[in-house]
Design a protein that fits this description.
2 copies of one chain form a homodimer.
Chain A (H helix, E strand, L loop, with lengths): L9 E9 L12 E10 L9 E10 L2 H4 L19 E11 L9 E7 L3 E4 L8 H4 L4 H4 L2 H15 L6 E4 L7 H10 L3 E6 L2 H9 L5 E4 L6 H8 L4 E6 L3 H8 L2 E9 L19 H4 L3 E4 L9 H13 L7 E5 L4 H7 L8 E5 L4
Parallel strand pairs in A: 7-8, 7-10, 8-9, 10-11, 11-12, 13-14
Antiparallel strand pairs in A: 1-2, 3-4, 3-6, 3-14, 4-5
Helix pairs in contact in A: 4-5, 7-8
Chain lengths: 349, 349
């Protein structure tokens, strides 16, 4: 609950400011941590505004795409000079918005700063569902729902199918692999360190896993793990891995495209060459976005909470304390430094 | 009907022999026309063999792929020193196969030669359906069924949708565009000459068409014809056109991949770069092969024959007389010399 003493108080507000559009690999110096003094904890401006305190911030691969000066159907780019934004768990301090009241907790897009003045409650749609749910868990919502929608709805898996997951120890990949095992599939994951490979095999129960950085020939590697081919590829990385997978799909196989993190730092994405496999093997490739599954959030929780309680679904998070460490955590996503879901704790209380 | 006088006669047999695997653009000199003398018109060898006289041969883009030393789920490559093969309309001269008898006409894979000794009736599945159908029309079967299956089954079009067809004056494209108009879609086609563009607009009833060879910026061209984006792309060419289309798809648009002829002469296919559009726009890409729709051949004929009779579906063929002109006709496909379906007449009687 909001702390009454905070209201009307004057505080400082630490922020992670986006400096300018990024070309190539992002660096911590593309962001700068600043402090605004004298923020009055009282909502200002028009009748929809909401002043929130940010508690947990999520580091997600798509954030790299917002560092390019390019609008897409899903995202608008970051604004140079303003804080970066991302999914977070926040608490309402003061509100002129009839949808949200002081003390409400919510999960949605917020600023990378201690306090944010949000202009509307749009995009914070899940708040009603989440209010009674321990808020620290909420941040798992996005990757969980992404894995759930992407695997069960897009992939429509069947028992015994051969499933390959790239970036498999990541926030989404680790869940997809476990969902696939629950379904009775054969599951192999790829990751970028030996530790992550061990995690996939020993903690998340993948049938097998490999370190793609140690494979000089990705096509040969994929063929070695799938001598009979792949029914379902859960695509998180794109580029060379996609090319190798295309050569190893089974007839009528499916590629569910969640993201292509290997391409996010490229000014010009790598070319993918083996697309004729789509015809040879009647492959279906389908993109999706987590927002497509927001209406199923409640169904997702009903599905996953019992598994979590029984310990049948495991989840690894990589927690960084302090907003000032946020830029390092975010950049770490793109060189694979994180193990599991990367979270920044701004304020645990 | 088979001519009784042919049986037991001795004839010469002209053949188009495949010389060796081809790298880069194919040339007429990759094939050689030879004549075997003293072919006895009597079936020889084991009990499934069928001796056939070939009447019409079809030139199809996939044949370029068989000139590479590469097996796929759909095709095995040509054998150097043996005749090339392709879809044709043929007549049984003599048979030891219980499935086929002297005088039967059929449509299926045969050799590029005057007479072929086929080893089985496998792949000639449509023969029962076609026996009573004027055989010259049969050769239309494959592109027709490809267009039908690909458009109605894979694309599942709706009235008013924006449809783009590449290689639109080709055997499949011209039909897809007309099917789309019958469905009430807005249809634009691309082709490689101004004459073909006129054909698309004036004969096949496309809403608009353009010559891709005259467009320095394909993305700008596609955007000009589809300012609101593309719902359905019927893909026949791949490469740079696919990259341009990916940038111009509408959210939840569909790309049905029939072929990628622009890539067939490349030893290493061009890279396609804009695949992140699959995520941004939740695009679905789906490959298919005409063989998937063989069971629907009868339904297809019921659908299309009334339209053909009423003149509501038009069809342009490019006919070459004489097997010796076959290599030129086939090579012409890859530089766009043909207008409409390319057919080689080996023997009209």
């Amino acid at each position: 609950m909001a702390d009454g003493s905070e209201k009307n108080a004057v505080v400082s507000n630490k922020k992670v400011i986006f400096k300018d559009y990024v070309s190539g690999f992002p660096k911590e110096s593309n962001m700068v941590v600043t402090i605004d003094e004298n923020l009055k904890l009282k909502v200002t401006g028009d009748s929809k505004n909401i002043l929130v305190k940010n508690h947990y911030l999520s580091c997600d691969p798509y954030m790299r795409l917002l560092m390019k000066n390019q609008s897409t159907e899903i995202f608008d780019p970051y604004t140079p000079g303003a804080p970066i934004t991302g999914l977070g768990v926040s608490k309402v301090i003061d509100s002129r918005n009839p949808e949200l009241k002081e003390g409400d907790l919510f999960w949605g897009i917020t600023g990378w700063e201690e306090y944010s003045l949000l202009k509307s409650s749009e995009g914070l749609l899940t708040i009603q569902l989440l209010v009674n749910f321990y808020f620290y868990k909420m941040i798992k919502g996005m990757p969980g729902l992404t894995a759930y929608g992407g695997f069960y709805e897009v992939c429509a898996p069947k028992k015994g199918e051969y499933v390959f997951v790239s970036a498999a120890s990541g926030a989404v990949g680790q869940l997809v692999g476990q969902f696939a095992k629950l379904m009775g599939c054969y599951v192999v994951g790829s990751a970028g360190t030996q530790d992550k490979v061990e995690l996939l095999k020993n903690k998340f129960g993948f049938d097998d896993a490999f370190n793609y950085k140690e494979e000089p020939d990705l096509n040969a590697a994929v063929k070695r793990y799938f001598p009979e081919g792949i029914d379902i590829y859960f695509e998180n990385v794109g580029g060379k891995m996609l090319d190798a997978v295309l050569l190893n799909m089974r007839v009528r196989g499916l590629i569910a495209v969640c993201g292509m993190i290997s391409q996010y730092n490229c000014d010009q994405p790598e070319g993918v060459h083996n697309l004729m496999s789509i015809v040879y093997k009647r492959v279906r490739i389908e993109g999706f976005a987590v927002a497509d599954y927001y209406p199923q959030y409640s169904k997702f929780l009903d599905f996953i909470l019992p598994y979590i309680r029984e310990g049948k679904i495991k989840y690894v998070e990589d927690i960084v304390e302090g907003l000032e460490n946020g830029p390092t955590a975010l950049i770490g996503l793109f060189n694979g430094r994180n193990v599991g879901k990367q979270v920044v704790v701004v304020a645990s209380q």
